[in-house]
Specification:
By secondary structure, this protein is an alpha/beta fold. The chain folds into 3 domains: 170 residues, ANL, N-terminal domain (Rossmann fold, 3-Layer(aba) Sandwich), CATH 3.40.50; 176 residues, ANL, N-terminal domain (Rossmann fold, 3-Layer(aba) Sandwich), CATH 3.40.50.12780; 94 residues, GMP Synthetase, Chain A, domain 3. The chain is built from 15 helices and 26 strands. Strands 2-1-11-10-12-13-14-15 form an 8-stranded mixed sheet. Strands 16-21-20-19-17-18 form a 6-stranded antiparallel sheet. Helix 14 links the parallel strand 25 and strand 26. Helix 4 runs parallel beside helix 5. The longest helix has 17 residues.
Length: 524
């Protein structure tokens, strides 16, 4: 294996003048300065400039550097600068404030923060500096906004100072990212260069990515989706990466058309909506797009088939910051109805997956029985910061906490069907209810835009099923209407919701996952 910075150097040597990194056209709405279009030579020079500034401030190999920036070119440049000098980049979502930043600095040991003032947060630098002072930590700032005690950073206008060389080992930690925190305090996830490259190799191979790709990244480049799914494949292929932030539908669709995007990712609701809006879809030049990845929620078979009819492959993705990953592509699961529901077992060399019965700890090898999916291999991290090791089983497999079952299939590869997060199984009077299953059914009601199913406590049954609903348009479904809709679909009566609350929006964490802990707390 090699290290991440060597891919930058390889791309610079191969095609220094080729476009490499491009800002969103609405950059001024969330960051300072005009949108940037950088060649591979520009990227290399900018990385040198930031890396030299970090070294001048005392950052050494092995030091953790916190980064909190939106999806502008300065974010990938800062990550790459850390890789170049052997520092450990620990990126934070821009939504994080004092609580999360304080926890992250304390856990990671980072004593430097790269950040920037933002049009929507005139207090961000003052807030961050207050937290940094608690740790005697230093701040670097991009852009014109600054604060006393901070060191300004900028993209170099001419040749930058070259930093002192550092030869990294592939097993050196490159990043510390953070779990989403849907089940508690965010955990630090250290990942080495070789882990990122193993994860990227899965993406590049399964998606058939090449140097000709124009990749549009709407996810924050702070975790597996943004780094493992976008940044590192960009480095590995030496292609072009276009940034998007935040999700702004007209801008996103405009980038797809004007920038000849060949690959991107999008959440299922957006893909559903676009297929239902022929006028909007026909107004976009999507002739260059080959594939769109999606996931984090069940995919509708009609959606996968609808995009396939338009010549665009929907790839169903399951993954985690820890390195678990499965991709359901047209090559591995040709039937769009199956691709929406199933994931093929990993086939890359050295990556193993197994399904384990949580009660008996026995491996499940036959269809129909539910168990926890576990992974081992080169993509999997070595453990959380400050961990007791409980994230791994006795055989060394990472415990995902996700419940799957083996699909009844005649194909050559084992297919897994996602059932739910382990903590999203509602136990009503001893009967297990999958929240994801009920969410899929409730979401098919015409008056429901989004929903989240959670348990609420009950003295008699232990738990009952409840649902939070975001109404579609001006409709507002009530519990009776939803139950009638579910009964018409012939589901078991113990799965029916017994409580419904309409809310304006579901609470989500910085990467878009519903924070069910917040919803459960409303009913405690």
């Amino acid at each position: 294996m090699t290290t991440l910075d060597l891919f930058v150097q390889r791309a610079v040597a191969a095609h220094p003048d080729t476009e490499a990194l491009i800002d969103a056209p609405n950059r001024a709405s969330f960051f300072s300065g005009e949108p940037q279009r950088l060649s591979w030579g520009d990227v290399d020079n900018a990385v040198n400039g930031v890396a030299s500034a970090l070294q001048a401030a005392g950052v050494a190999a092995g030091d953790a550097v916190a980064i909190q920036l939106p999806n502008a070119v300065e974010l990938p440049i800062s990550l790459l600068a850390c890789f170049r000098i052997g520092a450990v980049a620990t990126p934070f979502p821009i939504q994080h404030r004092e609580h999360e930043l304080r926890h992250g600095l304390a856990t990671s040991g980072a004593r430097h923060l790269i950040t920037a003032g933002r049009p929507d947060r005139d207090d961000i630098l003052e807030i961050s500096m207050g937290v940094l002072a608690e740790f005697d930590a230093a701040m670097f700032t991009f852009g014109p906004a600054s604060i006393e005690g901070a060191t300004p950073l900028s993209l170099p206008e001419g040749p930058a100072l070259v930093p002192e060389p550092h030869v990294a080992d592939p097993s050196d930690v490159a990043t510390i990212c953070w779990t989403s925190g849907t089940t508690g305090t965010p955990k630090g996830v250290p990942r080495a260069h070789n882990m990122w490259l193993a994860s990227s190799d899965v993406q590049v191979t399964e998606l058939d990515l090449t140097a000709d790709e124009r990749i549009l990244c709407p996810f924050p480049v702070v975790n597996m989706a943004g780094i493992g799914g976008m940044l590192v494949p960009w480095l590995q292929t030496g292609s072009t990466l276009l940034l998007h932030h935040p999700i702004d539908l007209p801008v996103f669709l405009g980038q797809i058309g004007s920038e000849a995007i060949s690959y991107t990712v999008a959440p299922p609701p957006l893909l559903n909506m676009l297929l239902g809006n022929e006028a909007m879809l026909d107004s976009i030049d999507m002739s260059h797009i080959r594939k769109i990845s999606s996931g984090s929620a069940p995919l509708a078979p009609w959606m996968v088939e609808g995009w396939q009819d338009r010549g665009i492959e929907i790839v169903n993705v399951f993954g985690s910051n820890e390195g678990a990953a499965m991709l359901s592509t047209m090559a591995s699961v040709p039937d769009p109805n199956e691709r929406a529901r199933y994931f093929p077992a990993p086939s890359r060399l050295g990556i193993e997956a197994r399904l384990v019965d949580l009660e008996t700890s026995e491996e499940i090898t036959e269809p129909g029985q539910q168990g926890e999916l576990r992974f081992a291999g080169p993509t999997i991290f070595s453990g959380y910061l400050e961990s007791d090791g409980s994230e791994f089983d006795d055989a060394g497999f990472y415990r995902t906490g996700d419940i799957f079952e083996i699909a009844d299939s005649d194909g050559p590869r084992t297919l897994y069907r996602f059932v739910d997060r382990a903590k999203d199984i509602i136990i009503r009077g001893g009967m297990n209810v999958s929240a994801a299953e009920i969410e899929t059914l409730v979401s098919s009601h015409d008056a429901v835009a989004e929903c989240a199913v959670v348990a609420y406590p009950d003295d008699d049954l232990g738990e009952r099923v409840g649902v939070f609903v975001v109404a579609a348009a001006e409709s507002e479904p009530d519990l009776d209407a939803v139950v009638e809709h579910l009964r018409a679909q012939k589901i078991a009566s113990y799965k029916l919701p017994e409580r419904l609350e309409t809310i304006d929006a579901l609470p989500r964490n910085p990467v878009g996952k519903v924070v069910k802990a917040d919803l459960r707390a409303r009913w405690q």
